[in-house]
Amino acid sequence: MFVIITYDVGEKRVGKVCKKLREYLDWTQNSVFEGEITKGKLSRCLAELKSIMEVEDSLYLYKVENPRAIKKEVYGTDKSFDQLFL
Amino acid sequence: MFVIITYDVGEKRVGKVCKKLREYLDWTQNSVFEGEITKGKLSRCLAELKSIMEVEDSLYLYKVENPRAIKKEVYGTDKSFDQLFL
């Protein structure tokens, strides 16, 4: 399935959450990750994230079973593309 | 259709972009907006955003034609819900 994950966590945990998400998904911009992932890997990723997160943190997960059902368009500078060359 | 819009724009333009998106979609978290929107309104929204954005800014648009094809899950604090009571 295709997923988009956005997060808003305390400053101290941003690095940890970001590093964890990089293991499973592609970074797109700010606190947004996306990518294709299996149900099993997603469960593991979420369990690991929950162990990092505190009560005041939040994480949004958007799931699309059929990756072809979602279309992505980029306007302006594609920062995830830049990132590949940094 | 259901859309998710995330943006990464220069500090000076954050307020304008945010205000414009609020006219068309619901704010969820940080620089992420979501909601159901018609093709016509989306085109108008994008045209208005493009007139605000500069070359170094970026905006990601994820479109799902059938809103039932996308599932949303919230972990931790739902900040968009809090926002309703502020």
UniProtKB/TrEMBL annotation, chains A, B:
NCBIfam families: cas2. Keywords: Antiviral defense, Endonuclease, Hydrolase, Magnesium, Metal-binding, Nuclease. Its cofactor is Mg(2+). This is CRISPR-associated endoribonuclease Cas2. The keyword Magnesium applies. Homodimer, forms a heterotetramer with a Cas1 homodimer. Mg(2+) binds at D8. Belongs to the CRISPR-associated endoribonuclease Cas2 protein family. The keyword Metal-binding applies. Its EC number is 3.1.-.-. Coiled coil: none annotated. The lineage of its organism: Bacteria, Bacillati, Bacillota, Bacilli, Bacillales. CRISPR (clustered regularly interspaced short palindromic repeat), is an adaptive immune system that provides protection against mobile genetic elements (viruses, transposable elements and conjugative plasmids). CRISPR clusters contain sequences complementary to antecedent mobile elements and target invading nucleic acids. CRISPR clusters are transcribed and processed into CRISPR RNA (crRNA). Functions as a ssRNA-specific endoribonuclease. Involved in the integration of spacer DNA into the CRISPR cassette. It is an enzyme of class 3 (hydrolase). One of its GO terms (molecular function) is endonuclease activity. PANTHER family: CRISPR-ASSOCIATED ENDORIBONUCLEASE CAS2. HAMAP family: Cas2.
